[in-house]
Amino acid sequence: MADTKREIERKYESDDSGLPDLTGVAGVASVVDKGVAHLDATYYDTPDERLASASITLRRRTGGSDAGWHLKFPVAKGVRDEVQAPLSDDLPDELAGLVRSRVRHGELLPVVRLRSDRDVRHLVDADGRLLAEVSVDAVHAQRLAGGDGVAQWTEIEVELADGVDPVFLDKVEKRLRKAGVRPSKSASKLARALAETAPKKLAPGPAADPVTAGDHVLAYVRVQRDAIVELDPAVRQDAEDSVHSMRVATRRMRSTFKSFGKVLDRAVTDPTGDELKWLAGELGVDRDREVLNERLSAALEEVPHTLVSGPVAERVSHWAGDRPGGASSRLIGILDSRRYLALLDTLDALLADPPLRKKAGKKPGKVLPKAVKKDFGKVSALVEQAVELDPGSDRDVAIHEARKKTKRTRYAAEAAVPALGKPAKDLVKTMKSLQNLLGEHQDSVMARQTLRELSAVAHAAEESAFTYGLLYGREEQRAAAVEAELPGFWDGVKGGTDLL
Predict the structure, then answer these.
(1) Which of 19, 82, 88, 263 is deepest in the core (most CB within 10 A)?
(2) Where is the CHAD domain (predicted)?
């Protein structure tokens, strides 16, 4: 079973490779010599180094106190999440799954071997509590694939102990800098090894800024593709909000294909959009129930105990399918499926050779506003239709459709922000507010539908349906409040941004 820990560390280099006296660091009572460890690590990647390009490291290491397989994902500068698995000859299945969105059907090869002599010191406080581990690593790097280069260097590494305020690292760094030690130019040993052992070749030039309408649309699509790939491991680990975030990325991309059909040929993007819709649907199976469960549970907590009749909480929990932590096997099966991996390949191919139409080469100031205004026009028609309808199922449907078009307009405006600036940014903000208002109404519709179903089940079991009816009535009131607010809110939206 793999374990995950948050790693917060900083790396340094110095001309004399020595470690200055750290007993003067505020809070450090003593520096404890822990001896020298001999580490031997083999790093794995695809032949085109997809993991390294995403600052992900996968290694099998022997020696030291944590021998085994280590997979590290970047979180922020100097911060990584490390997933550890016991030492074995082959890559554990769980770690293989966490890199599948990048590796896919490719082959993982040994790319670099790092052998290090690690001289370890522990910085402890007056109570003997570990504050940080400091090591001086003498590193020898050997490239195993894509060349036969070697390199060697010495670096100082400071890793924060669990539960210690990261500000402590600033105090250590201040002392190191005073002694002439400087931060390393490389983010990791692997990054430095790959750079120093690679065959000499021309470095790629900087990426060009978006210029045309097509550039801006593709830049937005690329961000969503990257989000799906990067969120894959988080979804597998059931990280908070990861399923929702991946689902939003699929919706953003699919919506972009629809909104900018004059830029990207929909004959090509529509089939991809269908696959994105499938993925969003699969991601939503568990997510929608989770959100609705939270709403119903919160509403039930507001009901006085004297008005709760029967095992209502148990019924809601059973309906939601409460389960222990960890992504469902069904969802992991989706992420391991050929269909999902083929979708990722399709997105890569689409970005590598985009189906650009004639207007893709035009200036964004002319093409993008027109597409956004067209989407907004659809929102306008649906909202005004909903306002005119009597309360009931027809109005519910109109509001739901307006919400979907509102999200589409918001995403189109998001894609246009880098080119159009404040007017597009203002529209994004307005559409988000409208989306939230209409979303509250739709959540009420779905909650009432679920309450009817639960009431029927309770009635069949000869239980009181009173509390379900009470909750249903409260949801009706919440929906009515949205419907009452909508006309005035919409009057404020119309003509409220320069883009429209």
Answers:
(1) 263
(2) 210-498
